[in-house]
UniProtKB/TrEMBL annotation:
This is Histone methylation protein DOT1-like protein. Residues 135-201 form the DOT1 domain. The lineage of its organism: Bacteria, Pseudomonadati, Pseudomonadota, Betaproteobacteria, Burkholderiales. InterPro entries: DOT1_dom, FAM173A/B, SAM-dependent_MTases_sf. PANTHER family: FI06469P, METHYLTRANSFERASE DOMAIN-CONTAINING PROTEIN. Keywords: Methyltransferase, S-adenosyl-L-methionine, Transferase. GO terms for biological process: methylation. One of its GO terms (molecular function) is histone H3K79 methyltransferase activity.
Length: 363
């Protein structure tokens, strides 16, 4: 399939499931393991560290300046005027960090933090790009089932799957259960998310061991094993599960993905970074490797679109699957291919509605 917009019939909701009570068959183990990695989208977000040695202090300073404008209706016009030139690097209507449930501490800002008037346009733009990376989203179980159904025919047996921005690890662990990847690797920048992914992995592997020990017939390394995707693997798939999953706490731009056969990007929050990500993948991936993105496309000559799934079909947002073509690139392409620019008037209208709902007495 080449540059194809698919209208395939996919699942539209999670099927009803019951907790697994007994492990009679490997299918019971798979079901219990899938259930164990659900629900990450509702996890508690800790506030950012405000101590004097916190690496987040520069981010917090600008965040406090913006939130101060949100909290004072008389400053709303000025806030919108400052944000309006930077819509191309913003996710959503207002930055999530400055909203009431955001990750900024609820404490008063330290003495010496600047007002928004004292913060330059370049600083503000860089802050908005960084803020997008703090947003967290997860595909539901049925969406990931749809996704792996879509990529399965395009992948050779084995291979390495890499999730850049892996959050709590749901996609990585689902991939390791669903298809016979040799290795599934998650790369996550935020420490608390990496820690939660590691904790999830420990629970997953503990549950897998308990299930394997409870089976009436022991599973051997060479026992034929049908996977949830329909692919036939061997007992090694479950018995060696722990050796096939790895989580790294690192910046996605500092991790070399050379050797990956599939790179997964939940890129709904990566709009401003898509050019840089595309260049990185073009330099590092081998010909034939697959890359999937959500919401934002890859517009780079080193990638050919194989599948495009409209919002509401495979997932709640659009999903695109690309293949790396041509030789590896030593130098970046000069052309800027990606530009995300929402309609400014429509954006302002939405923001004013949101602010009026937050401050009804001033509407």
């Amino acid at each position: 399939m080449d540059s194809t917009t698919l209208q395939a019939t996919f699942r539209t909701e999670n099927r009803a499931t019951a907790p697994v009570q007994r492990f009679r068959h490997p299918d019971d183990i798979f079901e219990a393991l899938f259930q164990s990695v659900q629900g990450g989208e509702s996890h508690a977000r800790p506030t950012l560290d405000l101590t004097p040695d916190s690496p987040f202090l520069p981010f917090l300073e600008i965040g406090y300046a913006l939130r101060s404008c949100v909290e004072k209706p008389a400053r709303h016009d000025y806030l919108l005027a400052r944000l309006r030139p930077h819509l191309s690097v913003m996710i959503g209507t207002l930055p999530a960090s400055i909203l009431p449930m955001g990750m900024l501490p609820k404490l008063a800002p330290p003495a010496g933090f600047r007002r928004l008037e004292d913060i330059g346009e370049a600083e503000l733009r860089d802050w908005l790009i960084q803020e997008g990376g703090l947003i967290y989203g997860e595909m539901q179980r049925f969406e990931l089932e749809n996704y792996f159904d879509a990529v399965k025919p395009l992948l050779p047996p084995g291979g390495v799957m890499v999730d850049l921005g892996s959050g709590l690890g749901k996609v990585v662990m689902t991939a390791a259960l669903t298809l016979p990847f040799v290795r599934c690797i998650g790369v996550e920048l935020l420490n608390y998310r990496h820690r939660l992914a590691q904790e999830r992995l420990v629970r997953l592997l503990t549950l897998a061991r308990q299930g394997l020990e409870a089976l009436p017939e022991p599973l051997t390394l060479e026992t034929p094993l049908p996977l949830p995707s329909g692919v036939i693997a061997s007992g090694r798939h479950l018995l060696d599960l722990g050796s096939r999953i790895l989580f790294l706490e690192n910046d996605m731009f500092k991790v070399d993905v050379r050797g990956a056969s599939l790179v997964f990007l939940y890129s709904t929050c990566f709009g401003p970074l898509m050019d840089a990500i595309s260049e990185k993948l073009a330099r590092e991936l081998s010909e034939g490797a697959l890359v999937s993105t959500t919401t934002y496309p890859i517009k780079h000559p080193a990638f050919r679109l194989l599948q495009s799934h409209a919002p509401g079909t495979l997932s709640w947002t659009s999903v695109m699957i690309y293949q790396r073509i041509g030789p590896q690139m030593a130098e970046p392409a000069a052309e800027t291919r990606y530009l995300h620019q929402p309609d400014a008037d429509a954006w302002e209208e939405r923001v004013r509605v949101d602010l009026a709902a937050m401050f009804p007495a001033t509407a």
